[in-house]
Amino acid sequence: MSAGVRLEVLAPGAYASLQDGGRRGWRRIGVPWAGVLDSRLMRIANVLVGNAEAAPVIECFDGGLQLAARGGAVRVAVAGDATLEVERGGERVPLAAWRSLTLADGEVLRVRRLGAGRIAVVPVEGLALPVVLGSAATYARAGLGGLGGALSGRALAAGMRLASAAASGAPERVLPLPPPLDGGPIRIVPGPQADHFTDAARALLVEAEYRVTAEADRMGVRLEGPVLEHAGAREIVSDATVPGAIQVPGNGQPIVLLADAQTAGGYPKIATVISADLGRLAGCRPGQVLRFAAVDAVEGERLARAAEAETRALLASVRPLRGEGVDLAALYAGNLVSGVVHALSDEYRPLPDVEHGPDGASS
């Protein structure tokens, strides 16, 4: 690591934190996984920048993140449906996502807004963070992970600086075809307490539409829609939960647990979102409408294997940025050749008549 090379957070946007593959193996003592909400985005982003697939990344929501290189060049990447720009020499240049880029000292990357989802991931080449219980993932409620020291467990804030390796100078990389948007139902496996709900409630869960509310964060997503009626008691003796579990409290409105969720709870769980669809659900925006579809555990496992195969294919398709992934918006906005004018502009003047000799040469 080159001394003094840093990536400074100028603005964290709606919420930005340092995450990795998560803190696995500690739920039995009450420590949530934490980690990224969409592991596919993390893996693609890290491969783009040249890191290990599960290396720490910046996870951000809804745009607004601004990062600046300090003390030298820093290589980053962006995975997600994001509109980006880079500030260079006082000019703002549009940039495509799903690629790596090297910020020269003083240059600024802005994630202006997100499109189809609410999550984007920004890895930093050579980012080094302290590991707590096997992970650098930020878990704010317990003050774990992140930058370490007095900043342990804190979301990113303006003025924070991340130590980084100096940019390697390797060719920039691009994902030529980003993963397609999937508007299909979120697949779920019934249970583990499906019998705590009426037959009508179980049928309603897969027949009705539910809307993502504004109460959506890294801990979970509250949905609103038709009430799911309990068959008996509205609470159970607290038992284990996992990300993806759909709890239904007394008001009958489902809550889907995500990476930062508690490890145990007393609301019955009508179903569990399969791992292949959990990242997609986590990326849903407030106001977005979704539907559920039931599958059994065997089909859920098959879908998980298929999703992994798709991810591996995407990772294998990452390639050096040469003729592909050109930032057309930036090219069209720039004056690539000085002195050129449009033929129909006021600056256009027809050339004077010239006489040509028999060989075509002008005279």
From TrEMBL:
Pfam families: CT_A_B (PF02626). InterPro entries: CT_A_B (IPR003778), Cyclophilin-like_dom_sf (IPR029000), PxpC (IPR052708). Keywords: ATP-binding, Hydrolase, Nucleotide-binding. Gene3D superfamilies: Cyclophilin-like. Residues 28-310 form the Carboxyltransferase domain. SUPFAM superfamilies: Cyclophilin-like (SSF50891). SMART domains: AHS2 (SM00797). It comes from the Bacteria. This is Biotin-dependent carboxyltransferase family protein. It comes from Thauera sinica.
